[in-house]
């Protein structure tokens, strides 16, 4: 084989942009470009170190700010769109890495050295992220002026992102999972995370969440040994909302709600339920009827004084705070709108750092690049 062409290409390394000859070898059964085929050096490409720096900035700030930070640190410029593409490329790989890490739990490959956890805390909650899709305008003859394509409109929706964590009850170190997906799939990830850090069939699991439809039921299904605790602030919100709908004046609502909440906290759910049923018989109210159904659904999850005696938390503030620091800190910055397909990968990259898997991910990626 001989050099048929030998163009000069530009490639970004951490010290700047370099120019290098990229020979094209031919003839032969299979033509060869050694720089591309053997060293993964492509025109306008970026080294592993540059990609890591771009993704580190891009997962913390807007892509515009990330581009500026990169120039401040390394004294040469990489455009906003390149930061966008690189960060999302790495985010896709992070999503696969986490899926593989959690699915390996089922093969018992990653949990052999984990200590047995006597009591484990799990929490899950959701937050909404703004998404947008471009769709063609139906039954419209309007076309774009330059290319003549069908006109499109932006469809903006707020989509629910679910985040959960597992940790030993007496240890603050958490393992996060999260997706823009249904409860069964996200809770399944949470179950794998709990096993990864030492949960067994003998572990006592304490689960805390709000009263989201289907959430407590799915947690109980996948964690059979779980004591579910309804977040107390959500119970209080239900009582005060009911008081408002019943027409109780604002300054009188606490006198109606707090004594009942205190009795429920002492395990007197049946008594309060009976009193509310009698009250509803006297003055029927749809919102009061909903509250009674709420108490029926979570009857075994509201004995807060007994839970506190066991040193169990009774509020989901820990996961609500985590939402601010994990997904929302990047995905919900002012003005941010995401394509739905970008949310899970970007969240995976945030979780990768929160779970302290960042270095492992990059070590594995480097080994794979060298092996290729």
Q: Rg, please?
A: 27 Å
Q: From the helix content, strand content and strand pairing, which structural class follows?
A: alpha/beta
Mean of residue pLDDT?
Answer: 91
- What portion of the residues fall into strands of 2 or more residues? 15-25%
What's the total helix number? Answer: 15
Shape type: elongated
What is the CA–CA distance across the termini?
22 Å
Order of helices and strands: EEEEHEHHHEEEHEHEHHHHHHHHH
Main beta-sheet annotation: 5 strands, mixed
User: Strand order of the main beta sheet, please?
Assistant: 8-7-6-9-10
Q: What percentage of residues falls in helices of 4 or more residues? A: 40-55%
- Runs in which pLDDT lies below 50 for 5 or more consecutive residues are none
Number of strands: 10
